[in-house]
Amino acid sequence: MKIINNHYQLSGGVDPLALCEKYGTPLYVYDAHIMERQYKRLRDAFQVPDLSLNFACKALTNISVIKFLKQLGAGIDCVSIQEVQIAIAAGYQPKEILFTPSGVSIKEIEAAIEIGVHINADNIPLLEELGKRNIDAPLCIRINPHVMAGGNEKISVGHIESKFGISHTQIPQILEVVKRTGLTIEGLHIHTGSDIYNIEAFLEATEVLMNLAMEFPDLTYLNFGSGFKVPYQAGDKETDIEAFGAKFSERFNRFCEAYGRTLSLHFEPGKFLVSEAGYFLVPVNVVKTAPTKVFLGVDSGQNHIIRPMFYDAYHKITNLSNPNGTKEQYSVVGYICETDTLGTDRMLSSAKAGDILAIHNAGAYCYSMSNNYNSRFRPAEVMVYEGKDYLVRQRETMEDLLRTQTQVDVFAKAIA
Ligand code: LLP
Questions:
Q1: Do 156 and 220 fall into the same domain?
Q2: Sequence-separated (6 or more) residues with CB below 8 Å from residue 243
Q3: Is 14 in the same domain as 95?
Q4: Which of 274, 286, 289, 329 is the most buried (most CB within 10 A)?
Q5: Domain range for residue 14?
Q6: How many structural domains does the chain have?
Q7: Best of 58, 60, 118, 266 to mutate for ligand 1, by most ligand atoms within 8 A of CB?
Q8: Nearest-CA neighbor of 328 among 299, 360, 293?
Q9: Within a 13 Å sphere around the CA of 294, how many CA atoms are in the beta-carbon half?
Q10: What is the helix (H) or strand (E) element at residue 255, kind and residue range?
Q11: Is 337 tagged catalytic?
């Protein structure tokens, strides 16, 4: 977002305050130019014969966003049968979808097989089960490389204590099951975490996968997951994707030579593609001066954006209504009956009730992790592209909240 003539503007000159007028608040806004920029950056960072960038759609599961990324050339990574169904509704063929569940029921796996998507197995009992059923579809296997990588503990998922994947030390068991049951393994996969700044940790996990790959003769791809870090505030670290891409491509091409065949290289980015594209626009309800702080109470809370509470994540906040005002210190808090602090002691342009604040980096894991706590409606979502705005999800209504509830009048007996 840029300030032009004392007004914030999104790409294509779109005025975020006008979007608030038009669609109401709070409002999620996605600047599709930023998704496009990020997709191109990632694509151009790798020099390999065959690259697939599969959008990890859990980051932002909106069908119009998924369609937009599909048009750019992205594949898709799904972690639940419902995400698979949304991907198909967005126009993906089952064969274009990788389904990477974690410990789901065999019923869910059966449904995925029925649909015909590629399955990424993350446990040995599942391999046994699939082997027993003689399924003819080739499989991918998710490996746990035992590497600690990720922005915080909750989002580091490739270490020895993590529930994800099959430990790389269990390769003999995997090979035994595969041989005994005649399964075909077409791909190997790792995903070590999110917000990984340290390229070296990433490359270490990569080596584990490339070594194991030599044991599997039928591979057509290797999938290195994601975790590329984007900046959340000025001066924040980000993965140097261009440097990483150059180093990685060289190593991958060398691997393919040793393997004796060119494999397709897969990544499945979420944050990198959509985090910076999103802004969450919230009005200030009240400016409350307390003995040690000035609170800006906003018309939203952890129900709509849980990352600050869940991960202590930092999301930059700006006052869109007063672009060049004098800076004052505020704590931005939500309306939920919990301590839902969105930003502590931030320097923002002087604010008053009715001003609109933008919470940045709201594209990834914000709407998709939102909920109805305190019986609040989830907000609307708008996508902006080439100067135009598109409503891509309606704001919820009371009807939505009551739709799945049934009213049963059970009369409690008076307690004696
Ligand atoms: N592939 C797999 C198998 C994953 O589990 C994930 C994210 C990704 C790819 C995409 O990772 P990304 O490029 O977005 O880092 N809710 C947390 C992030 C958890 C991500 C879970 N898996 C957050 O808000 O930081």
A1: yes
A2: 199
A3: no
A4: 274
A5: 2-29+276-402
A6: 2
A7: 58
A8: 293
A9: 14
A10: helix 241-259
A11: yes
